[in-house]
Specification:
single chain; alpha+beta; 2 domains; 5-stranded mixed sheet; 16 strands
Length: 404
């Protein structure tokens, strides 16, 4: 199996400058390759430029511009071109499926924060020896950079990536390792229902509160964004020191919220994996849930629109994004795989409307957001708990139906 590790880098002043130049030059390569594809399609009889064609030009590009492109790893530049190729593949996939296409866009220097080295030893070298939690990673064009290795890397390092987050630099490793020993069996199965009022409700009647990290930091983030909006739009090299500090403050607040959300997801998923052998959850299409409400034109008054609940839907979308369901489910599946647990996603249809006692299904059963009262047998319970029970039952049925 493949596992990733993320460590804080501690570069010197000169290495920090070199890392910034590396991102800048890879960003320039990405934008240049995108421009070539656009021009070829628009002006040369709709010709499609592929990754192989652009990768073959790298040798000439490096020879033409040795100061900016020739100093960096050839394989990392190939990875940047593959990154663009994946963006186009995703674009064409969305076109065929009828989704919003989202044509690949040019990247600004501040929006290009990662450089990947596809193979350890090719343009980079991870040093596995540590001394007082400090090791080093060698990067072509940068040198040997100190890394704070807070935990051991198990397995053989496959890829190395350098990532910038605000003023901090991180190295992200992927390591191939053997499947770890599964956790001891507990004999327990659970269904979970994700929500807004409570982050999670399980089939045993337990609840995990929703920390609402985004809401708790909303006031400070809004103040920082308002301060940032007061600055006039100028080129990056003309920005004042106050402007740069305000930008860094916004990035710092957003990074804090992201780390808090990620920490909560890891702890919640780990608790579920340790306590249960089988976990069932709803197969949520979060992207569709976050879609905005379509406007409703008023037939009697051309040019005007009827109320469509857009403000309420916007608040709901913000709460769903703040909860971070997608991140949590991804982490849950990864932890379950390494622990030898089984996780199954089930159809969420009517899970909160079906009575677990008599099976009566009706929208009238859920009288409020939190209260469930069956119109058939009179069973009452918390609506989220009822949903988790139905999710567990559907998951067990699906597991039994799966071929051995």
């Amino acid at each position: 199996m493949i596992r990733s590790y993320k460590f804080l880098m501690r570069p010197t002043v000169g290495q920090t400058q070199a890392l910034g130049e590396m991102l800048r030059d890879h960003c320039s390569l990405y934008n240049g390759a995108l421009q070539e594809r656009r021009d070829a399609y628009r002006h040369v009889s709709k010709t499609s430029v592929k990754y192989g064609m652009q990768s073959a030009q790298l040798k000439e590009i490096r020879a033409f511009d040795p100061e900016r492109q020739g100093r960096w790893s050839f394989s990392s530049q190939q990875a940047t071109l593959r990154r663009l190729d994946k963006a186009f593949a995703a674009f064409f996939r969305r076109v065929k499926s009828g989704d919003t296409p989202g044509y690949p866009r040019f990247r600004g220097v501040n929006w290009f924060d990662t450089v990947e080295f596809p193979k350890d030893g090719d343009g980079c070298r991870w040093d596995s020896t540590t001394h007082d939690l400090v090791t080093r990673v060698r990067l072509q064009g940068v040198g040997h950079v100190k890394v704070h290795q807070h935990r051991a890397v198990v397995g053989r390092v496959k890829t190395v990536s350098v990532k910038r987050e605000g003023r901090k630099w991180f190295v992200v490793l992927t390591a191939e390792q053997e499947q770890p020993e599964p956790l001891p069996a507990t004999g327990s199965a659970v269904g979970i229902d994700l929500g807004i009022a409570n982050f999670l409700a399980d089939s045993g009647g337990g609840f995990v509160p929703n920390p609402r990290h985004g809401r708790s930091n909303a006031a400070r983030l809004e103040a920082a964004l308002q301060a940032l909006a007061k600055f006039p739009r100028v080129r990056r090299d003309q920005r004042s020191a106050n402007h740069r500090r305000t930008v860094e403050k916004v990035a710092k607040l957003r990074g804090k919220v992201g780390r808090q959300r990620l920490d909560h997801a890891h702890k919640t998923a780990l608790a579920l994996v340790r306590e249960h052998d089988f976990i069932a959850h709803e197969n949520l299409t979060i992207r569709n849930m976050l879609k905005t409400v379509a406007p409703k034109p008023d037939p009697d008054k051309p040019g005007t629109f009827l109320p469509n609940g857009a403000a309420v839907k916007t608040g709901l979308n913000r709460s769903i994004s703040d909860a971070g369901w997608g991140v949590f489910l991804t982490i849950l599946h990864a932890k379950a795989e390494s622990a030898g647990r089984e996780v199954i996603a089930v159809n969420p249809r009517n899970t909160s409307r079906r009575c677990p006692q008599c099976g009566h299904t009706s929208a009238d059963n859920r009288t409020t957001q939190a209260k469930f009262h069956c119109a058939g047998c009179g069973h009452t319970a918390h609506a989220d708990t009822v949903g988790a029970i139905n999710v567990l039952r559907a998951g067990l049925v699906r597991r039994e139906a799966q071929p051995a």
